[in-house]
Amino acid sequence: MSGRPAKTYSQAARMVAQVLHLSKSGRLQPDEEARRWEVSRRTIERDIQALQVALDVSDLRLESGVGEDGRVEYRLVGEKPLDRHKRWQLLAVVLGVELSHFLGGKRFRRDIEALEEQLLRGLGTIDRMTMRDTIDGRIYVVKTGRKDYRGREDVIAALSNVLDALLERRALRLMYLSPASRRERRLVVHPLTLVMNRGALYVIVELIEPAEGLPSRILLAVDRMSDTTVDVELPARAYPSDFRADDFLASAFEIIPGPVEHVVLEVSPVQLPYVREHFWHQSAHYVEHDRVTFLHLDVALGVDLENWILGMADRVVVREPARLRQRIRERLSVAMAAYEE
């Protein structure tokens, strides 16, 4: 976690960094944390109090003492170390994210707090609320349609290696199953940011070894990874100064980035109230012409955009670009043929 963090980071952002630091060194110094985050010592003490509560889920605790330099520090103690499994449990509590799919079925709860879209330069989250569980019966999040990681030991292994590579700035070797071609290819990558969206986990990576047909930075679904190993032979790499996760994903309608194209959608009067009351993309704006409302977007033409349009196919019509209109027509034709059988 090198470099100066932004002053606008929330307590959750600081706590994520503190969890990762604890997993590496086993101790925290309040004075050092206050200097790093440019906040008061009292603010860091409140962070540590919150960490004490979160650590209950891992049967660990922080004990105060005096370090070798004579300053107060908190040491992580417990019968068992903060291993990969417990580290993910603790991150789940801090982030307010339910990871019970692959953490033994245990549920995690916390107070409601909106997280920054990018918590840290090396650990980000895009989806803020959709993975939250019931909170004291007052809020309930429907989980239908989320990715199901239950029983997926391969996902646990991949996540552990991704996190280790992020922490150590190491290379990651893996096999990746392309959702389009259904073919596996071997990749050597440098993980940049972990991303969560609609209950699914992704990682933005930089290719260390060029791969045919792929740009230098790509988004990978964690559950499509296999045979992952952290390569300790290759030297650790500094985090690229020109990278920001929100910039990388800026073109994505939801999660799939790519070249930006101008999209014009005609929205029916029946569907218009629903469309207007939701945030779809930062480029979204509405234009009225001859009593017809058009939604304008500057986004990548990904499957996420296609699926959203098809979900309202009788009430949202693509006017531009022509190739997106043709793609929607083709998918509707396939659907109609299936229903005619």
Which SSEs are present, and which pair or pack?
Elements: H1 11-25, E1 27-28, H2 30-37, H3 41-55, E2 60-66, E3 72-78, H4 84-95, H5 153-168, E4 171-177, E5 184-197, E6 200-207, E7 217-221, E8 225-231, H6 245-248, E9 260-267, H7 272-276, E10 285-289, E11 292-300, H8 303-310, E12 316-320, H9 322-340
Helix pairs in contact: 1-3, 1-4, 2-3
Structure commentary:
This protein has 9 helices and 12 strands. The strands form 3 sheets. A 5-stranded antiparallel β-sheet has the order 7-6-5-4-8, covered by helices on one side. It has a 4-stranded antiparallel β-sheet with strand order 10-11-9-12, with helices on one face. It has 3 domains: 11-95, Arc Repressor Mutant, subunit A; 153-243, SH3 type barrels, CATH 2.30.30; 260-340, no CATH class. It starts with 10 loop residues before the first helix and ends with a helix. Strand 5 and strand 6 form a beta hairpin. The model is unreliable at 1-7 and 97-142 (pLDDT under 50). Helix 2 (30-37) packs across helix 3 (41-55). The longest helix is centred in the last third of the chain and has 19 residues, at 322-340. By secondary structure, the chain is α+β, with helices and mostly antiparallel strands. The protein is 30% helix and 25% strand.
SSE sequence, one letter per element: HEHHEEHHEEEEEHEHEEHEH
N-C termini distance: 57 Å
CATH topology call of the largest domain: SH3 type barrels
Count of DSSP H/I helices: 9
Strand order of the largest sheet: 7-6-5-4-8
Characterize the largest beta sheet: strand count, sense, and whether it forms a barrel: 5 strands, antiparallel
Average pLDDT across residues?
Answer: 77
Structural class: alpha+beta
Overall number of domains: 3
Q: Would you identify the regions where 5 or more consecutive residues have pLDDT less than 50?
A: 1-7, 97-142
